[in-house]
């Protein structure tokens, strides 16, 4: 008797909760509404660039107007690690996006079985030389570059002028050192707190960008070479140390708790330092602090590397299409990406609204919107670039091996030799 | 126990279902995955105890455990002293009693991430400026060394949680019969004696509860850690939860991270259960 009651209890409870659950699924009706027009194709985009979320959505709605039979849903999750985690989650939960983003060869390897061949797209054809190397595999092109990015030393033109420093004359480390000393001795008159703001708290600034300038050469400026290398030699270790020490010693202290937003917003945008090591992605942030300063007063110096006068330029991210989606969805995805990078409307959007440095041909007559990107594009056109190799380093190496070691060096816990030793070991171990 | 009728099960089932779906099933899955080479998308082979052997040889993981243990010990002591202290303060007959309670509890309403960023500003900028003003060098450069990072985290946690712990102590303090205290007063016990012999033993159950809460909280802390120091400098203020997330999502070693999480779970469970067991033993019945 008791047992029977138990089972009826369970049964009715299950029934009640299943009714409650169906109730929930009814209420989230907007998804089914979007599939209402019967022959519409729905493409789910999962992208990571928070900075251009709104602009991208604007472009998407323009595309949807032109192509009423295509429905594009955009989901944005920002930041490197967060995006990677969210992408993994959506794959393991079975909600696979149709278009998503990957970084470099390591991601290609992980997601390989999902990546559709994009060789037949117009965008792939228009992609600039070298921008596709890290997504080429077995003769297939698996991704389309987002854009190009470059970095160096951004400087405050006004401060340089007042200090009587001609940025065109800074070619070598000696020149830079002399300029920094000059800035440092005139700090008060120039109204700056220090020549640099060096955010040693941010492991990516050290581990990705600073390191890249001095290891690009030994990997022949190629991501793939770095990806295949069993070891790292640090051939330019002495130069790297000199540049690191210079930035660290002449920075606002303590560098170990200085972060990216302080560096860009609090110190550089407000004119409290003369130089920061950053790239074109900071433009919107600086402009939001001081539009006039961003437009007219920011210049770009290459990081001094012996034998090179160039800016490290590379493709930070790629668009890829999910092979497992239905054929018509794959086709629609390709069409959309093509339209974004090769149609007139798309091209205008890419340069004017996204403020991208294009990674494609056919943009010669278009004006790049922000001055930092413009300068980088000049270097690209003059072929004065260094490779962007850190995306080929072992997973986590740049930040958690090299970045951490440099932080310990800055804190005085270990010597420079130990930094190199530890980082080399970490590289070799993950390549075994 | 007699009232296990249809209503009992009707109300219980959704909870059990929910608990099963979001806690038990993923936990079992995770446990299984920790024995494979799962990379977040697929698991191809069974590696046995390999991850568990590796994790005890990894300096970073052990360092983060040690750091967390130190942090937990200090915060549990500070939080309980502060919580009880504040509770004693606001259960006296002061006019602003209710206002004070609200004020002390308020920090607990702010999310850990935001708190972390606020305190980061205080430690880095405000401390720096004050240090310059009064010429105290020890106030400068906070969060840029391991030691200051540690104390920064302790201060932040104490500030956030003390109000919450206070509420628990208040509940027990207000339950202490007034006549007991009065009787003690008449017998000539001074306020310290009254606290030592009456108040303290009678709030012992509150110790059990709040020690359990603070202990498990201190071990599982993540968002404050992320926003205040982000594990820096050189990952030396990285607590276990953060180390596990890093392993999973920066180093992309999902199964290894899962193994670490299992060990982490065991440590927290063992410590918390032992603590509750011993605290319960020395509680006195009223």
TrEMBL record, chain A:
<dbReference type="InterPro" id="IPR050490">
    <property type="entry name" value="Bact_solute-bd_prot1"/>
</dbReference>
<feature type="signal peptide">
    <location>
        <begin position="1"/>
        <end position="22"/>
    </location>
</feature>
<dbReference type="Pfam" id="PF01547">
    <property type="entry name" value="SBP_bac_1"/>
</dbReference>
<keyword id="KW-1003">Cell membrane</keyword>
<protein>
    <submittedName>
        <fullName>ABC transporter substrate-binding protein</fullName>
    </submittedName>
</protein>
<keyword id="KW-0449">Lipoprotein</keyword>
<dbReference type="InterPro" id="IPR006059">
    <property type="entry name" value="SBP"/>
</dbReference>
<keyword id="KW-0564">Palmitate</keyword>
<keyword id="KW-0732">Signal</keyword>
<keyword id="KW-0472">Membrane</keyword>
TrEMBL record, chain B:
<keyword id="KW-1003">Cell membrane</keyword>
<dbReference type="InterPro" id="IPR000515">
    <property type="entry name" value="MetI-like"/>
</dbReference>
<feature type="transmembrane region" description="Helical">
    <location>
        <begin position="65"/>
        <end position="91"/>
    </location>
</feature>
<feature type="transmembrane region" description="Helical">
    <location>
        <begin position="148"/>
        <end position="172"/>
    </location>
</feature>
<feature type="transmembrane region" description="Helical">
    <location>
        <begin position="103"/>
        <end position="128"/>
    </location>
</feature>
<keyword id="KW-0813">Transport</keyword>
<protein>
    <submittedName>
        <fullName>Sugar ABC transporter permease</fullName>
    </submittedName>
</protein>
<dbReference type="InterPro" id="IPR051393">
    <property type="entry name" value="ABC_transporter_permease"/>
</dbReference>
<keyword id="KW-1133">Transmembrane helix</keyword>
<dbReference type="InterPro" id="IPR035906">
    <property type="entry name" value="MetI-like_sf"/>
</dbReference>
<feature type="transmembrane region" description="Helical">
    <location>
        <begin position="202"/>
        <end position="222"/>
    </location>
</feature>
<feature type="transmembrane region" description="Helical">
    <location>
        <begin position="7"/>
        <end position="32"/>
    </location>
</feature>
<feature type="domain" description="ABC transmembrane type-1">
    <location>
        <begin position="65"/>
        <end position="275"/>
    </location>
</feature>
<keyword id="KW-0812">Transmembrane</keyword>
<feature type="transmembrane region" description="Helical">
    <location>
        <begin position="255"/>
        <end position="278"/>
    </location>
</feature>
<dbReference type="Pfam" id="PF00528">
    <property type="entry name" value="BPD_transp_1"/>
</dbReference>
<keyword id="KW-0472">Membrane</keyword>
<comment type="similarity">
    <text>Belongs to the binding-protein-dependent transport system permease family.</text>
</comment>
